[in-house]
Design goal:
10 helices; SSo0622-like fold; 16% strand; 2 domains
Length: 359
C-alpha cells in the first residue's frame, strides 16, 4: 500500500465528512449510496472517488468540436465509445480531478443537462389534462423551445435531418456508478470479482498509469435520442433555436415508465451488492478477502461457476456427507426395528403370562 494512496484517501474522507459542497451539481453524496460508501471507505484497501446512485435525465449535446470533428459528450451518449470515455476519466483521476469535474468540463464546451432526477418520476393525477407536462418536466427551462411532432406539420422528413451536424437531445437512465481507487491491483481484482458476481457486468479496472481505479456499473443503462436542433440553426446558436421532438408524447411516457422500473431494479441491485460486500469483502482483521489468484466466473443466470478442481472437491464432500447420512439412517432404522421387535416380544410374553394366571 503506497503512501500516495493513503494520502489521497485521507483527503477524500476529510472532504466527505465536511460541510463543504463537493463538485457535483447536487453538492453532496446521494443518500441511497451512503451505507455502501461508508462500507467501502471503512475498508483499508479502498476509497470511493465519485458516485451516483442512479438518475433519469435529458441531455442536450454540445456543438461539433473543430479540433476533434465530433460532438462534445458523444462518449457519454454512445455506449460504443466507452473506452474513450474511460481513458478520459482515468486521465482526470491522474490529475486529481473528480468525475464531476470532467463532466463539468464537457458541459462548459456546450453540453447541457435539461433535466436530472435521482428519484423515479411521479406523474400527476390529472396528466391527461396537461399534455405538455412531460415536455415541461424533461426539458425544464427550455420547454418553451420544444416543437411537438404534430406541430411540425410534416415539413421535414426524418431522412432529411443531418444528424452528424445537428444537436441531439437524449433521454437517459443511468444506473448506479461508483469510481473506486484500490490500494493494489490484487485488491482491485477482488472488488471487481464481487461486483461482477453481484450483477455489475459493465464494471472494469480503468487504464491509469498512476493509480488502480475501478468503475462499477451495471447494464441497466438506457439512452434514446428524443429531439434535435436542426443543423441550420446550429451554425449560429443563440440559445433560442427550436427543439424538434422526434418522438410522440406517448413514447416519452413509455421511456419514463421503463426508467422507473429500472430505478427499482437499480435499488434492489444496490442492496444485494451491499449485502455481498458486507459478507465477503472483509476478513475478521479488516483486510481484503483475496481469491487466491483464481478468477471468479459468473454465469449468465447470475450464479457462480466452479473450476474443475473445486467441483471435484465439493462433490467429494457431498458424497461423504451422503454416505454418512445413509449409514446414520440405516443405523436408526435398524435400532427402530429392534426396538419394535423387543416391544412385540414383551407384549407377547405379558399376554402369555396373563393367560397362565387365568388358568
Amino acid at each position: 500500500m503506497s503512501d500516495g494512496f493513503l494520502t489521497r484517501k485521507k483527503t477524500i474522507l476529510v472532504a466527505l465528512n465536511s460541510d463543504t459542497p463537493d463538485k457535483s451539481p447536487k453538492g453532496y453524496v446521494d443518500e441511497p449510496l451512503l451505507p455502501l460508501i461508508v462500507l467501502i471507505n471503512n475498508h483499508q484497501d479502498y476509497v470511493t472517488t465519485s458516485s451516483c446512485s442512479g438518475r433519469i435525465c435529458t441531455y442536450l449535446e454540445g456543438l461539433e468540436s473543430e479540433a476533434e470533428g465530433e460532438t462534445e459528450g458523444d462518449a457519454k451518449q454512445d455506449q460504443d465509445s466507452q473506452d474513450a470515455e474511460e481513458e478520459e476519466t482515468a486521465k482526470g483521476y491522474e490529475e486529481n480531478t473528480s468525475l464531476a469535474a470532467v463532466e463539468a468540463a464537457k458541459r462548459a464546451k456546450g453540453g447541457q443537462w435539461l433535466y436530472v432526477s435521482h428519484d423515479p418520476v411521479v406523474f400527476p393525477d390529472q396528466i391527461s389534462e396537461h399534455p405538455r407536462w412531460i415536455v415541461e418536466t424533461l426539458f425544464g427551462p427550455e420547454a418553451h423551445r420544444v416543437v411537438l411532432m404534430e406541430e411540425q406539420g410534416g415539413k421535414e422528413s426524418m431522412r432529411t435531418i443531418d444528424m452528424a451536424r445537428s444537436q441531439l437531445v437524449y433521454f437517459k437512465f443511468e444506473p448506479m456508478i461508483l469510481h473506486i481507487e484500490a490500494a493494489t491491483p490484487a485488491a482491485a481484482k477482488t472488488f471487481l470479482n464481487h461486483s461482477l458476481f453481484s450483477g455489475y457486468r459493465n464494471s472494469g479496472i480503468l487504464p491509469s498509469a498512476k493509480r488502480t481505479m475501478l468503475a462499477i456499473r451495471s447494464t441497466l443503462k438506457l439512452d434514446a435520442p428524443i429531439a434535435y436542433i436542426p443543423s441550420s440553426s446550429s451554425t449560429a446558436p443563440t440559445g433560442q433555436e427550436k427543439i424538434h421532438l422526434m418522438v410522440s408524447l406517448s413514447y416519452l411516457r413509455v421511456l419514463i415508465d421503463l426508467s422507473n422500473d429500472k430505478f427499482r431494479m437499480n435499488v434492489a441491485q444496490m442492496a444485494r451488492f451491499e449485502d455481498r460486500l458486507s459478507k465477503h469483502l472483509l476478513n475478521a482483521d479488516g483486510s481484503a478477502v483475496v481469491d487466491g489468484g483464481k478468477k471468479l466466473k459468473v454465469s449468465d443466470q447470475g450464479g457462480e461457476w466452479e473450476d474443475k478442481d473445486a467441483r471435484k472437491e465439493r462433490k467429494k464432500r457431498e458424497g461423504m456427507l451422503k454416505q454418512e447420512g445413509t449409514a446414520k439412517a440405516r443405523a436408526e432404522k435398524k435400532a427402530a426395528a429392534e426396538a419394535e421387535a423387543a416391544r412385540v416380544a414383551a407384549a407377547a410374553a405379558e399376554a402369555k403370562a396373563t393367560e397362565a394366571v387365568a388358568e
